[in-house]
Amino acid sequence: MEESNSNNSIVNNVARAIVAALDWNSTPDARKAAVSYLESHLVRLRWEEFSPLERRNFSNVAVELMSEMADPCEEWALKSQTAALVAEVVRREGLNIWQELLPSVVSLSNKGPVQAELVSMMLRWLPEDITVHNEDLEGDRRRLLLRGLTQSLPEIFPLLYTLLERHFGEALSEVGRQHLDVAKQHAAAVTATLNAVNAYAEWAPLSDLAKFGIIHGCGFLLSSPDFRLHACEFFKLVSPRRRPADDSASEFDSAMSSIFQILMNVSREFLVRSSSTGGAVDESDFEFAEYVCESMVSLGSTNLQCILGDGNTFSLYLQQALMRDLMSKPKLSVHSSGDGSSANSADSSSAPVDNEKRKILSFLNEDICSTILDITFQRMLKKERLVTGQALSLGVLELWSDDFEGKGDFGQYRSRLFELIKFIASIKPLVAGAKVSERIVMIIKNLLNSPMPAQDLAVLESMQAALESVVSSIFDGSNEFAGGSSEVHLALCGIFEGLLRELLYLNWTEPALVEVLGHYLDAMGPFLKYFPDAVGSVINKLFELLNSLPFVVKDPSTSSARHARLQICTSFIRIAKAADKSILPHMKGIADTMAYLQREGRLLRGEHNLLGEAFLVMASAAGAQRQQEVLTWLLEPLSQQWIQIEWQNNYLSEPLGLVRLCSETAFMWSLFHTVTFFEKALKRSGMRKGCVQNSPTASSTPHPMASHLCWMLPPLLKLLRAIHSLWSPSVFQVLPGEIKAAMSMSDVERSSLLGIGNPKLSKGALTFMDGSPFDVNKEGHTEPNETDIRNWLKGIRDSGYNVMGLSTTIGDPFFRCMDIDSVALTLIENIQSMEFRHTRQLVHSVLIPLVKSCPTDMWEVWLEKLLHPLFVYCQQALSCSWFGLLHEGRAKVPDHHNILTGSDLKVEVMEEKLLRDLTREICSLLATIASPGLNTSLPSLEHSGHVGRVDMSSLKDLDAFASSSMVGFLLKHKSLAIPVLQISLEAFTWTDSEAVTKVCSFSAVVVLLAILTNNVDLRGYVSRDLFSAVIQGLALESSAFASADLVNLCREIFVYLSDRDPAPRQILLSLPCITPNDLHAFEEALTKTASPKEQKQHMKSLLLLATGNNLKALTAQKNVNIITNVTGKALPFYLIAFLFVAVLWKCAYEFTLLSISARPRNSVNTTGNTIEEGDSVGLAAIL
């Protein structure tokens, strides 16, 4: 009886939905909801409950419903949803129903343009589960769908081609008759058909696309201004298709060759047309040219073999692409008389390549590579770097303009140029080396003779990066330079020795010139690795440059000299890293020179720190013993001052002592440089990346810094505690005004929070890692001002936190020798008074590394004392601030000392940014706690063998996991668990997708422990509180990115805990649009599959049904997953892609790069041509 009532209810609901969908008097939302019910509930969830006859009848009704929607006035969204319903029916029922429905579908498409549009929409939705890689869909089902659709392509593709041909022609005819409304309908049908074609472009056999005319049809539409972008999408999708390994490879090559010819023809036509208009390119043409170029690059990246079939065509193309530059620029005169043979010998001596790649490389001769480098070198400078109105002594440059091309893209654009330079250098090292050397020497000569050297200095600076790219590519160990022929070695040695000689001869003393020269010398670092004889002269030159700059700064106008000195010291670090062991014989000489300069008082502490860091880099290549010796040599002088108890008692024993310290400028900055060097020592010590040794001896060797922690950290803790205390209310009240002002945010920090970029800094200002400036010229002044104190406070906090965090990563030596009480007192004592920005920094730099590194047997001692006060405070502060943001429009960030200043609007923006930053960092800490490495005893549910239910006899006590799972440890300690679980619940309701994603990983481990243990309280929390909070999170559109994780949490809770706790069922039944029958059908569907992916899909459909499609995270995700899957992808710039970019560079230059500079700055869109104005008919005006 109950089953009969259920069936009657279903029938009534279906009937009502169909009536509502067809009722024009219903609201659009009601009609869409009705169709959604039919698709998501009936077809997705309950399709298996119907008999074959009922399914066939419903399929026919769905097609009839689509026919009824074929009205010009109907909403596009409703038409698309109806088409999706029919497509879902076909996907569920399979190929047989499609064969039955096909005649009706074809007949419907013949009735008119609106009907054709609907049919194309349906064909577009049909392969959705193939084109949109839905993680909820099982592989077997996708394979069945793919097989069925592939068998149906002989019916689908002719239909699509017919619709394209028919309605494109009809659109042109109707425009000629001035029937614009009808023309719009035909144009909409063409667009819908192209969208459908694109849904098959990524996976349908290329031979079928060619055989049934799809490639030809889309190629023809490239000449139509109105449809060419949609047609370009097709070529973007098919160009990167991989060549099959079966018998169809020849058909694939033929189809890909025809695609190449189409793209060649359209690019040639574009070049001719743009040349005839004087190079003017409007926005529409530019977008079209970009699409074509992307397609050609993609095709070359994966299918260049298809192009090389006809050598004459490819050679002709290369000549066409590069002819203009070869005719207008002199050929490269190579320093070595045997460059051609040397280059060939370089190729022959390299690792063997297959014949196909060798054939490709043969087309890249020296003239082509030389021209590519010429073009590239012209494009590496921004217009804003040059002085307006002055002529360049180096001829024409293709300059990037921020005003026109955009400020945010130059970095990515230039990085692509560098990748191209590196590729040319790797295949033609002699050409690249000679070319870059020749240009640099020419620039230097022009600079020496220039009356305005600042003009050419910008060009010289830009070429430094090009030199670095060439040198690193040629002398990089991965290219096995050492294995090349002796002739190539000798030629390259001659080229770069000549360039180095030119650089060493320069006697520049101007700070800007000295700085650039230092950069050029450190760019030669990889060369020095293979030619160690030149290392000594480079080191001597760097010291010469350092001594040529003034040491005492009396005037702020000379601050550039101080900056240049620091940059020269930084060059020692870069050369030490690049030259590797070649620099080791010179360590004593460098040490002696450092000692001499220090005795003479000609080396500042900041400069000494940088040179000391270079020494640490050298020592890391010299072995553990030398590393220990260098650390002792560098740290022992610092320890003598650092461990003295007098300064600690004088300045750190009580809060106002820090005020006295800030008046002692020299000592204040001395402490700063000591702390920053501790940071450098920790970062640079230890084993080099890539030199990991797995021997027992290596693993048992103590960290080089381990023995220094016991004297290094205690004074640092006292210093940090004193700084933290400044923000406590009792101390803040008695501080002098200058200190209070210094505690406020810097302009750089405010700008960062407001998202408006950093304000311009003086030349003498260096920046910390987070962008905050430190003016090096203030070091040594006797009266620090507000800015100096602010920079000092920030510098000590930044480096001090990093020292603490890096020390924790050493492991046992830190946790065994440090007193937890003193660490907790320093870090947590004033947590209530900390600003959000400082709390975030503390968590990021200290607590997260500490949690990762803490030994399991020390969790009890360390974690509760540090984490409990933090979580209690953050739960209260974040909850209050988020409540204010969500309900009152402003985050209530604690600001006890009026740190946040500015207009109300700016303060609101800064408050929200501070709130989100701290929220994300706390959630990152939770994600770290839940990381697999800290929860080694927890199996995944799928791998543990549990499907649906867990054997009650296998449940363990929570204590069983507390020693090997940090989440288990945390849950065992209620004082820790309560604020953490509260944060994780509330985070689902905070509109921050990044925080939600991180909380999901933590909550997943909590759910797993609830499933695997017999803890009643934990099970109740997960089944009731967490389940409800996750559903609330899905109601927020901001959670769309994490929606898959949220749905999976719901699935795991329901599947594994609903039999042990009634809460999940009760919560679902409390949702507004669900019935007990719906829940019963859902549970029945779960019993029929053990696949987590299928279960997630059922869970998702039920949640949408139960909430009336009001879970914005799921509906937003659905709207993003467009069927054609044609969202922009990063270009595949792998090695072969670089080759093709090189080959096509001039073409890309013509219609994607050169057109940037050739386009008129005030271009007018001219796509609305009439029939009389040209061969192509424009529909843009009527669409």
UniProtKB/TrEMBL annotation:
Region (Disordered): 333-352
InterPro entries tied to this protein: ARM-like, ARM-type_fold, Exportin-1/Importin-b-like, Exportin-5_C, XPO1/5
Composition skew (Low complexity), residue ranges: 336-351
Limits of the Exportin-5 C-terminal domain: 283-1118
Alphabetical list of Pfam families matching this protein: Exportin-5, Xpo1
Chain ranges of the Exportin-1/Importin-beta-like domain: 76-234
Top-level division of the source organism's lineage: Eukaryota
PANTHER family the UniProt entry points to: EXPORTIN 1/5, EXPORTIN-5
Full protein name: Protein HASTY 1
Organism annotation: Hibiscus sabdariffa
